[in-house]
């Protein structure tokens, strides 16, 4: 039995209040459905007095704190949090409504210096930051699972494989802006943090057994220290189906329709896709309709779209049609790095060979280390170094280049020998 399995068995004893079945380790036995939080579903915190009690309780708790957030992706504009869940030893679980309590900076300050346990931390940290919750240190159970080589790293799969419990996941995609939140949703939300600290403890032992714990801690520190992401440049270029749009005038139509949709979605606080689908935007861009009648004949602008709405979309198309040639968007975003790999063979065959060899070497190393290639080193970093290798390409210069592209110390140590071998090999 591995350390992780022993921890899973310990968790089974503590949660079930008895001894696990004789079937053996939790991951080998039939998983146990986890149907109710240990102390029941906590009341939703929705006023200052209740929030103050939670802050005091969690400040007095011990050990790491499990943290999760629920958003209303696909229903509301943006990625704000509509429910925050926490659990800590000595404090129990808490469910907080950040609509009723939009400033949780006091809670964030009370948990300063405490390790936060999150699953897929980079997904939740932006919306937590918006309400004043920023961890000083964290443990990401999804990333830990990737580094430990688990093939499935969703929370449900990890809890089942590591701890032997089945989480009900039926409410992950519901509209969390709904008020009041139904009891089954609240039960699901509370269960999401019920075992996070147990999972963290088991994964820590497994990473230590594999000799990867220090690597994981470097990754977690980098996530906690990362500044807020910069807004995307030209987000309209990410419209699904953009590869069909070839001409600059058509690009202008996409841009005008996307920006019009975004303003409407922001004002109405709904998901942009509920205002107008990407497919309809691309359809209009390809057709560049002459008038409302022609627009109404296109897919996505049919009989369900009212005359007033059609007129606002046609006005966006007309603005794009009226732009002078000099004001039209350029095809493709300006590249700040190497060209797309598919173009390397024509532009620089030697660099293309380097990239192919580097990819093979990194893939082999990732397989030996039992982790995904992208967690071993960013594919973009490999491309940049293969396109413009340091001169001379030795251990020192390659390590410096990797560090300059944001690689962590453990990644530099592992990947440098592979890249040096590739960059110093005689071209065939």
List keywords for this structure.
single chain; 428 residues; alpha/beta; Nucleotidyltransferase, domain 5; DNA polymerase, domain 1; 3 domains; 6-stranded mixed beta sheet; two-stranded parallel sheet; 20 helices; 8 strands; 51% helix; 9% strand; disordered N terminus
Coarse morphology: flat
**Strand fraction:** 5-15%
For the biggest β-sheet, the strand order reads: 2-5-4-3-6-7
Q: By CATH's scheme, which homologous superfamily of the largest domain applies?
A: Ribonuclease H-like superfamily/Ribonuclease H
Count of discrete structural domains: 3
Query: What is the makeup of the main sheet?
Result: 6 strands, mixed
Known CATH architecture of the largest domain: 2-Layer Sandwich
Low-confidence spans: pLDDT under 50, at least 5 residues? 1-27
**Number of beta-strand segments:** 8
Query: Secondary-structure element sequence?
Result: HEEHEEEHEHEHHEHHHHHHHHHHHHHH
> Distance N terminus to C terminus?
49 Å
CATH topology name of the largest domain: Nucleotidyltransferase, domain 5
The amount of helix comes to: 40-55%
């Amino acid at each position: 039995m591995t350390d992780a399995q022993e921890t899973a068995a310990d968790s089974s004893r503590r949660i079930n209040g008895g001894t696990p079945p004789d079937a053996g380790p939790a991951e080998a036995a039939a998983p146990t459905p986890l149907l109710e939080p240990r102390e029941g579903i906590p009341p939703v915190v929705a006023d200052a007095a209740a929030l103050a009690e939670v802050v005091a309780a969690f400040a007095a708790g011990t050990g790491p704190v499990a943290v999760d957030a629920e958003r209303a992706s696909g229903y509301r504009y943006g990625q704000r949090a509509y429910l925050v869940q926490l659990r800590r030893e000595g404090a129990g679980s808490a469910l907080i409504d950040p609509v009723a309590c939009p400033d949780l900076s006091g809670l964030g300050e009370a948990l300063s210096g405490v390790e936060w346990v999150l699953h897929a931390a980079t997904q939740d940290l932006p919306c937590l930051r918006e309400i004043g919750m920023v961890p000083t240190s964290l443990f990401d159970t999804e990333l830990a699972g990737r580094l430990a080589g688990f093939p499935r790293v969703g929370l449900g799969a990890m809890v089942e494989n590591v701890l032997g419990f089945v989480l009900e996941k039926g409410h992950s995609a519901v509209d969390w802006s709904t008020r009041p939140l139904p009891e089954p949703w609240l039960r699901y939300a509370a269960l999401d943090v019920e075992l996070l600290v147990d999972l963290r403890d088991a994964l820590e032992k497994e990473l230590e057994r594999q000799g990867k714990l220090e690597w994981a801690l470097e990754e977690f520190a980098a996530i906690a220290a990362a500044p807020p992401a910069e807004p995307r440049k030209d987000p309209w270029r990410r419209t699904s189906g953009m590869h069909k749009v070839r001409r600059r005038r058509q690009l202008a139509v996409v841009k005008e329709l996307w920006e019009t949709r975004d303003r409407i979605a922001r004002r109405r606080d709904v998901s942009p896709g509920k205002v107008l689908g990407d497919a309809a935007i691309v359809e209009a861009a390809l057709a560049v309709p002459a008038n409302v009648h022609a627009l109404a004949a296109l897919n996505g602008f049919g009989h369900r779209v009212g005359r007033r709405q059609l007129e606002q979309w046609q006005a966006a198309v007309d603005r794009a049609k009226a732009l002078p040639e000099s004001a039209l968007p350029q095809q493709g975003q300006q590249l700040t790095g190497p060209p797309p790999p598919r173009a390397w063979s024509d532009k620089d065959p030697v660099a293309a060979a380097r990239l192919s060899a580097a990819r093979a070497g990194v893939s082999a190393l990732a397989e030996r280390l039992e982790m995904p290639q992208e967690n071993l080193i960013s594919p973009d970093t490999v491309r940049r170094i293969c396109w413009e290798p340091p001169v001379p390409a030795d251990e020192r210069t390659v390590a410096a280049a990797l560090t300059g592209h944001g690689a962590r110390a453990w990644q530099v140590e592992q990947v440098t020998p592979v890249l040096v071998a590739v960059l110093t090999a005689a071209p065939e």
